[in-house]
Every structure is written in structure tokens, then in C-alpha cells.
Amino acid sequence: MVMAPAHAGMGFCAGLYAAHFIPPLLEHPAHPGVQVTFGLLTAGAAIVPDLDCHSATAARSLGPLSRLPARLISNLSSVVYRSTRTPRDSNRGGDHRGITHTIPGATVFAAIAAATVAYGGRNGLLGVTFVLFLFALRALPPVHRIDKDLVVSAALTLGVYVLMTEAGVTDATAPAWLGAAVLLGCLVHDLGDAPTESGCPLVFPLKIKGQRWYPVSLPKWMRFRAANKGANAAILVLSLAAAGWLLLQPRLPGLIPSAVQP
Fold first, then answer.
1. Cα angle for residues 99, 105, 111 (degrees, 5° grid)
2. If you count DSSP H runs as helices and E runs as strands, how many of each does the chain have, helices first?
3. CB-hemisphere CA count at 13 Å for 240?
4. Whether the predicted model's global pTM rises above the 0.70 cut
5. Which residues are registered as beta bridge partners of 196?
6. pLDDT tens digit string along 2-46?
7. Long-range contacts from 147-151, C-beta under 8 angstroms, 24+ separation
């Protein structure tokens, strides 16, 4: 799999770009604080699909509290893969890069986040943002000690709650805000895995060439090994460079629909 720092970097960059128009659509000003907040949430969400892998950053971030859900998700992914694969699909376990690496999987994660915020109120909002920030922090190289991450994540969560409140994020719009961040982050993760040798079954359950788990990818000569440190470092550096450029842009002429320009 593509390494967590690269996923988080791409998620942060995508979140900063999307923050130019998603918060305004929800009638929130797209000022720098909101943009960085949305970017950090998306960076954390870009780690979420790898909950199907017991050794991934997301599965290790909260000790037993994340390992148990990760094991359940991995087993569920394997069951779904084996029960839905066609004769043309590969004869693999399907626990990793299965249902969590699809558009329906990203939608489910987003719906869970939105429902948690909708029904949990402020506690739900704080809980979701805390987990996403922790995932983002754990993805940063080098991996920090978990006790420090917990403290920093808690501080960031409280700070973000204040920022979101000041930006006009209400109980009515917070579920859409968090849901959009999680959906975008998960999709960015899947697109980041697609260029690797194994590809990514993004369009499940649609059949392509007789395969329900068709690995969407680039032409073979353009693919790279998921664990290629050089490719991962390049992705991270380019993502952070793009993020820096995005932070300096008050608006993105020609890229953002005029109806939502601030």
C-alpha cells in the first residue's frame, strides 16, 4: 500500500483545494483557519480506508480501540470479496484493498462520520475530529509516541471546535461538513492507491471485463510499487508544495465555480 505520509499529504492538499468551495456551499466563509481545518480533517480521513489492514497506521493509532475495529473491518472485507467475486477476479483474500477501497466504502465511512456528528451533537463532533486528527498526526514521519499524539490531537480538536463555531458551523451543518471531509479523504486515498501495481477496485460493484473487483490503475509501464520509498517521498513533497501554494491563494480563479467564489 502507499505509505501513510503520502496519503495524508495528498489528503491535506485536496482538503485545502476543496475548502475554497465546500465550506462556502454550506454558507461558511473560506478563511485560512477554515481551510487548514478542512485540510487536516481530510488528511486524517485519507488514512481511514486502510483500517482493513492490521499493520496500517489507522489500525495502530489507538491501540486496542483501533485494532479491534480494524480486525472486524478486515474480516468483513474478506467475506464481501469472496462472496461477490467473479471467476475473472483474482483468488485472493480480499481483506486489504477490498470494500474499504471503493466508492461505496468511502460513502459508508462518510455517512458514519456524518451520523455520529448528527446524533452525537458536540460530543460526536469532538470525537470524529479527534480521531481524524490523530490519524493525521500518526501519519507524519517520524511516527510519534501515541501519548504525545493523544495530547496534541485533543488540543487540535478543541481549537478546531472553536474555529468551526466562529465560522458558523452549526449543529445543522456540521454533519455535512465532516461527511464531506471524510468522503473526500477516502476517495483521495483510493485514487492514490490506483497507480500502484495492484490497482484499486474503485468502481465495485460495477463489472469491468467480467471482474466485479476490477483494479482501476494506470498502464502497466506507469505503475509503481506501493512500498517504493522514492515514489512515496515524491508524492509527499509534491503534495506539501501544492498545499503551500494553495494556502497563499485567497481564491483560485478559473478553478472554482463563480457561484461559490468568496
1. 150
2. 9, 0
3. 9
4. yes
5. 224
6. 577 888 888 988 888 887 776 555 555 556 677 788 888 899 999
7. 149/61
